[in-house]
From TrEMBL:
<feature type="signal peptide">
    <location>
        <begin position="1"/>
        <end position="19"/>
    </location>
</feature>
<feature type="domain" description="Secretion system C-terminal sorting">
    <location>
        <begin position="306"/>
        <end position="384"/>
    </location>
</feature>
<protein>
    <submittedName>
        <fullName>T9SS type A sorting domain-containing protein</fullName>
    </submittedName>
</protein>
<dbReference type="Pfam" id="PF18962">
    <property type="entry name" value="Por_Secre_tail"/>
</dbReference>
<keyword id="KW-0732">Signal</keyword>
<dbReference type="InterPro" id="IPR026444">
    <property type="entry name" value="Secre_tail"/>
</dbReference>
Length: 388
């Protein structure tokens, strides 16, 4: 194995730790090779874990999407749901699914975190080969549009995994190339750009945190990776193998080498160590959060909120507590294609509003809720996920 592929190790976390189930890790055993151990819930505030969701020793119930039957997998191969080499993980909060791919395989697996049932998506789009390290899928995240995105080491395939009519569909979006300004910090070179993980922002841009600690911004429409800097504040030999956004909008990074988790400010790339005394071994991270997922920066009003963002009962609450906000407000709901599918008029009295809004026509999926004042100024844009 080349040096950007690091062994998986076991997460040695306290059993009493409690964590909200929206932040996850791939963990493994302390061996000289890559040996998958389990998927775990993680508390990104201190690096401790809670529930073990699925492991190499679990009884796997695998259903083939293509063949529409339960399948028995060849456990001696690299291409099965409990393969020893795991490096790519994303969380789909709409369906409470963990989406992952073994490193030497093109197969996509969908693990339902509640039922522990697994759907096999027999993917013919990806071209992962056990003998070609460039082709291994090592980065994966959920995009702001609700789709899952995955990328191989060399950036020669950027995959979009969409859910349509209860079926997962895979598209190859193309080759991601170096921006001309990158110079020696190449996205496509082993030493500077391979491995690591990726996260998304609220504009559906992506950021790849390579194993070397370099960070690249990818605009999907351009299919170019622009070097934006190197993480500071971590040890010189720290290998960045997992990255995911926490509820504060900061990026949490983790290492397969068995080291502290760090919280990184994307605007400065300055890292600070998380308070846990533990040094977990992590190969990938996933969460439901996004960078810059907040109100408009133009005239932003702090004391306005729309909640919950995960809508299980077709209701959201709109809260205003600001004397500067007066009169009538308009609430608009847009789908991820930008179509306005719902409107509601609200009224603020004495700078205060606490109102429940019924989302009667919305089916399961991701939406943007926009709140504007009488002049049309945006007070708040917020993404919600409706589940039925």
């Amino acid at each position: 194995m080349k040096k950007y592929l690091f062994p998986l190790f076991l997460l040695v976390f306290g059993a009493s730790a409690q964590a909200q189930q929206d932040f996850f890790a791939i963990a493994g055993k302390d061996t000289s090779g890559i040996v998958f151990s389990d998927f775990r819930v993680v508390d990104p505030a201190n690096g401790t874990s809670g529930e073990k969701l699925f492991s190499a020793d679990s009884s796997a119930k695998v259903f083939s999407q293509e063949r529409k039957v339960a399948v028995s997998e060849d456990k001696t191969s690299y291409a099965h749901s409990q393969a020893m080499t795991m490096a790519a993980l994303a969380y789909d909060p709409t369906n409470n699914n963990l989406v992952y791919m073994p490193m030497f395989s093109s197969n996509i697996y969908i693990l339902n975190a509640s039922t522990k049932e697994i759907t096999l998506v027999e993917n013919t789009v990806a071209r992962a080969s056990s003998c070609d390290i460039n082709s291994h899928i090592t980065r994966m995240t959920t995009g702001y549009d609700g789709n899952i995105y995955a990328m191989n080491n060399a950036g020669t395939q950027l995959l979009q995994i969409s859910r349509k009519s209860d079926q997962y569909v895979v598209n190859d979006l193309g080759i991601v190339k170096d921006d001309v300004s990158n110079g020696k910090n190449s996205f496509t070179a082993l030493e500077t750009g391979f491995g690591g993980d990726m996260i998304a922002d609220a504009e559906n841009n992506f950021y790849v945190f390579s194993a070397s600690g370099n960070v690249f911004k990818i605009v999907v429409k351009e299919l170019k990776a622009k070097f934006i800097g190197k993480i500071s504040g971590i040890p010189a030999n720290y290998s960045v193998n997992g990255s995911a956004v926490n509820a504060k909008g900061k990026v949490v990074i983790a290492s397969a080498k068995g080291d502290n988790l760090y919280e990184v400010d994307l605007s400065t790339l300055q890292a600070k160590v998380l308070p846990s005394a533990e040094k977990p071994h992590v190969y990938d991270l996933a969460s439901k959060y996004f960078v810059n997922d907040r109100t408009s920066t133009n005239g932003m009003v702090a004391n306005i909120d729309i909640y919950p963002t995960r809508v299980d009962e077709h209701f959201i609450n709109v809260s205003v507590n600001d004397k500067a906000v007066k009169g009538n407000l308009k609430l608009n709901v847009f789908d991820m294609a930008g179509k306005n599918i719902m409107k509601e008029n609200l009224s603020v009295k004495d700078g205060s509003l606490n109102q429940q809004v019924y989302l009667k026509i919305l089916i399961s999926g991701a939406y943007i809720v926009s709140l504007t004042d009488e002049s049309g100024k945006i007070l708040l844009n917020k993404k919600i996920l409706v589940t039925e």
